[in-house]
Amino acid sequence: MRASDLMTRKVYTTSPQASVQEVVRLLHHQRISGVPVIDHDGQLVGIITEADILENSDCDDAIVAEIMSRQLTTVEEDTPIDEIAALLAGRHIKRVPVVREGHVVGIVSRADIVQAVAMGELLVRPW
């Protein structure tokens, strides 16, 4: 099983110029915990998560570029799921964007991997 088999293809994104308040509303309404940040050329430039927002609780009028994480971990569509699981566990992250030529084509979260295990589509391994 590869990233393309498991990834969520409908990925909510935001721009570096969006307000943090806009992102807070997006996360709340979509019941998600983070979104990739995409520049005007469609390139992935960061990610903003609940943790980024909580760590910057005084960001009432901040924009995404001011608090987003710029150090990105990404995978490609053909990355094996066991590698992704090890990556998520090893780096203590909850999600990883799936990219093709710098453009986000999906996202794999820890919840996606747990769901695959629960459905019997993936064996549990000591990653």
Report on the structure:
The mean pLDDT is 90. It is built from six helices and four strands; from the N terminus they run ααββαααββα. 27% of the residues are buried. Helices cover 35% and strands 19% of the residues. It has 127 residues and is an alpha+beta fold. A two-stranded antiparallel ribbon has the order 1-2.
Question: Kindly, what is the distance between the CA atoms of the first and last residues, rounded to a whole number of angstroms?
Answer: 15 Å
Name given to the CATH homologous superfamily: CBS-domain
The main β sheet shows up as: 2 strands, antiparallel
Low-confidence stretches: none
Radius of gyration: 15 Å
Total helices: the number is 6
The overall pLDDT, averaged over residues, is 90
| Number of individual domains | 1
**How many β-strand runs?**
4
Keywords:
single chain, 127 residues, alpha+beta, CBS-domain, two-stranded antiparallel ribbon, globular
Strands, helices and their partners?
Layout: H1 3-6, H2 20-30, E1 34-38, E2 44-49, H3 50-55, H4 64-67, H5 81-91, E3 95-100, E4 103-109, H6 110-118
Antiparallel strand pairs: 1-2, 3-4
Outline:
The protein is an alpha+beta fold and 127 residues long.
